[in-house]
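Collaborator request, handled under Task 6.
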Amino acid sequence: PEYLAYTEKHEIFELFESMLKSIIIEKPEDPLDHIVKFLRKKTGPQIIIAGPPVSGKSTLAWYITSQTKCVSVDAAVLVQQSMATNPELAKKLAPVLAAGDDVPDAIMLSLIINRLRQPDCSENGWVLHGFPKT
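Structure tokens returned to the collaborator:
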């Protein structure tokens, strides 16, 4: 039918899916106001670079961010910065990192989500690299 072609052409289902995910994740007090803000929000590209070790992920991220306004979100740098500003987190992660283990996914995801919600990322877009490790 004609409406299916229209919805596919204009990515209507994807828009609603991302809007619903946003409501579920952020749990706003006023969902209707949240939807209005969501639809008015201008966002930049959202890029995740994944690949095996030493495959050029950081180099590619650097190139993309040097050619665009996108913010580079390097998982390792994010952990270092977070530990430097949050002594409680540093105390929790120091033994993990000293043992050569990866930061637990729950902590890493929390750090990444908080970073990607910052105005510079939401306005300019972002390039995430260094996560997931596997």
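The cover message to the collaborator said: "The longest strand covers residues 46-49. The beta strands are 46-49, 71-74, 126-129. Please let us know whether this matches your experimental observations."
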